Amino acid sequence: MSVNLLFKIAAVGILVSVLTQVLKHSGREEEAFLTSLAGLLLVLFWVIPYINELFVSVKELFSL
């Protein structure tokens, strides 16, 4: 996993938290929820290939 991915995840987290707080204070609770959900899905799509690679390497390690 590269450091670049960690910086991307941190940037998305900061952006989503700021947007969520702004939307909550303006009375748009539903949009705030959807914003946080979209941020979570975006990060999951970035991380899923690395999780798959981890499972494949663990499977190869234990299948002798």
From TrEMBL:
Coiled coil (UniProt feature): none
TM regions (residue ranges): 6-23, 32-51
InterPro entries with a match to the protein in the record: Spore_III_AC, Spore_III_AC/AD
Tree of life domain: Bacteria
Keyword Transmembrane helix: yes
Keyword set, alphabetical order: Membrane, Transmembrane, Transmembrane helix
One Pfam family per UniProt: SpoIIIAC
NCBIfam families, A to Z: spore_III_AC (TIGR02848)
Name the UniProt record assigns to this protein: Stage III sporulation protein AC
Gene: spoIIIAC
